[in-house]
Structure formats: structure tokens, C-alpha cells
Amino acid sequence: MRKNIVAGNWKMNTTVPEGVQLAKDVCAAVAAEIGDANVGLAAQNCADHTSGAYTGEVSAPMVASTGANYVILGHSERRGYYNESYEMLKTKVDLALENGLKVIFCCGESLEERENGSFKEVIGAEIRDSLFHLTAEQMANIVIAYEPIWAIGTGKTATSDQAQEIHAFIRGLLADQYGAQVADDMTILYGGSCKPSNAPELFAKPDIDGGLIGGASLKAGDFMGIVTAF
Ligand code: PGA
Fold it and tell me: Is this prediction's pTM over 0.85?
């Protein structure tokens, strides 16, 4: 079943005490609004190996052992700064699922790809090459996040119509590959300068099921302003 999700991506921010405080503030506010059973924990990445001599890496079993429910994979910052390829992400997706984690899988085009008109091709390839080897059953544990790179941390949000167009396009790809049920059940989030002021308009679109929030997730008040947009 499609779910409404607002996910916070804190990125490389907060010390342990700051992170604990922010988590407490968010949990208290969420519990007051929708109940704390609705809160999940996610890692921002996992390794493409299960264990072994990979200094500095954190595996999917390690992430799962913390009690995390989700892992974000394929964020454009990981693809761009750490050269994560489609093939590597495919392996990470498999390892995450094998270890009982749900995956928030990110896709999205650069400004250049938006402007030269290749954006649907790019997004289609990102999804096809790292996810379409999965079975329909496995797709139930995937959440897709559309994050145009030009809108991440820039204050430049995609318009609600631009986002809706891509979300509908992604749902169409899923319908072609897996049929209408899988497509209809998929939760598709929008990310990129989402904030309390623009969340209501974005979330009102039929194919936008929530958000992946960077900057605005670092303040409990702003994050809750987005959660309550539903
Ligand atoms: P932003 O980041 O909300 O700061 O634009 C979104 C993301 O990178 O997930």
C-alpha cells in the first residue's frame, strides 16, 4: 500500500548530543501529531559488501543491527562525490533488502540534463538499471525519491507541476515493468528545497506521496511544518 512519508536527511550534520536532541524533539512532536509508532529510523548509505576488509564502510547487516528500518541509497551526493554507479547501487539495494531494510532509492537529473531535455531518459535509466531486476514482491520494500539535483540545497524547488510530471512518469515506468498494482502502491517522495511553505502544494499532487527533506529537517519545527502539510 502507498504510504505518506516525510523523511529527514540530516546528511553530515549534528554531533551525537545534537542529533539525540533533534531526534527527541522530532519524536515528541510527531508523537503528539500522529503517534510515535509512525516514526522510523534510516541510514544514509550502506556498503556494497556484507563484511570483510573494507575499512571505513558500514554494511547493511550493521545498519539493520542498529534497529534502523530504512536506508537511503543513490542520493545524488553519493553518486556525484563518491562515484556510486548503477551497478554498485544495484548491489547495495540487494544487500539492504536481504537484511530486512526498506530502501529509499533516489533519482534525479542535473541542471544540464533538465535544460538539454534528457532528464526523463536519465531518471528512467537510474531506476531501470538499479531496481528493475527486483521482483514485484521486493518492490513493496522500495520507496522512490525524485530529487532534481538543481533543487537540492539551492532554495530552488521544482514547481509542483514539474514534480508531478516526473512522479507520474516514474509511476508509468513501474506500471510498464510490473503492472498497475505495483505502480499504484509505490510511495514516491519529492526532495529538493522542500519546506513548510511549499510542502502543501507539492503534497496536494496525486503522485507526490511525501518528501525527502534535507536542510529543513535540521530544525524540528520546520520538519514538523512539513509533516503536518498532510
Ligand atoms: P534539501 O535536500 O531539502 O536541503 O534541498 C534534500 C536532499 O538532498 O535529500
Answer: yes
Residue 77 CA: which ligand 1 atom is closest? 8
pLDDT in tens, 189-212: 999 999 999 999 999 999 999 999
Q: Is the shortest distance between the CB of 212 and ligand 1 below 6 Å?
A: yes
What's the domain range around 146? 5-47+72-227
Residue with CA nearest ligand 1 atom 6 = 214
Here the contacts of 197-206 (C-beta below 8 Å, separation 24 or greater) are 198/157, 198/160, 199/225, 199/226, 199/229, 200/229, 201/160, 202/157, 202/160, 202/163, 202/229, 203/4, 203/229, 203/230, 204/160, 205/160, 205/163, 205/164, 205/167, 206/164, 206/168
Q: Is the pLDDT of residue 36 over 90?
A: no
Q: Is 133 among the residues known to form the active site?
A: no
How far, in Å, from the CA of 43 to the mean position of ligand 1? 15
Whichever domain contains 93, its CATH number is: 3.20.20.70
